[in-house]
Amino acid sequence: MTKNRFFILCAVFTFVSAQFSAFALMPQTEKIIDGFLNLHAELTAEESNEIARSKIESYFESAKNLLPNEDAEQGMLLLDSLHLMESEPYPIDGDDPKAKNRAFGEQMKKNEAFISAHEDDGSISKWLYLFTGDVTSYYMTRSVASTFRHGMRVKKLYELALKKDPLLTNANINIGNWYFYAPRIFGGGTDKAGDCYELAHLSARTKGERYMSALVLSQFFFCEKQNDQYESLMNEAKKEVPNSKEIARIKKFNAQGISLFEYNRKKSGVDEHQEDED
After folding, report:
1. What are phi and psi of 177, to 5 degrees?
2. Buried b (16+ CB within 10 A) or exposed e, 235-264
3. Contact by Cβ (8 Å): 1, 229
4. pLDDT value, residue 103
5. What pLDDT is recorded for position 17?
6. Angle CA(27)–CA(32)–CA(36) in degrees, nearest 5?
7. What's the rounded Cα separation, in Å, for the pair 98 and 127?
């Protein structure tokens, strides 16, 4: 990061911290979400998919009982979205790819219906915009048609989340990913992505946010061939989750000259199981 860029980001961070502090959810709901995102990082050290899924189910079931009544409807949409997304990387015997894809599509529609019904009353939280963007992103990459249909909507949802809280780490990471992969003709660009990743890292509050922002920013610097920053950030991520198998896997393909971004681009492709039912 250049000194000028660093000082600009620090100025943005200081200004935004002073201006944005209100949330649409109860503090207990915020705490539940932070816990789920911390679990996301911790699960990368688990030995088996079965153990990971068991921990996800346990957290999900306990979180449902802890939701404040004030957030009941929106809170369940958030938890259902997180449950789907956190389970996806840990397939187990009996998982049906078609049913899983349908579940993402159905969740996307439920979230969007709530947003449409409440977009004028100010009750939609930053998290619902963020997770709706994430669920849509998971769903749309299974089909070329869905990618074209929903791509700009995903960007808009992340922008709406950031309008609520410009320092929301995961929203900055994910809109950064959008910029990284999108062609410049549609508004993409790695320079924009880098700014988002750096702001995400600067504003990270929790274990889960520190882990993910350090990991993603490390890969940006890997692409930029800034090896000192890359190594430092990989070490930061490892400090948060010392036994992360995700870090070990990323370092393995980094050693082959492949970034996480390139790996994900090759991996995503079009899933033959997708049923485009929009």
Report:
1. -60, -40
2. ebbbebbeebebbeebeeebeeeebbbebe
3. yes
4. 95
5. 46
6. 145
7. 27
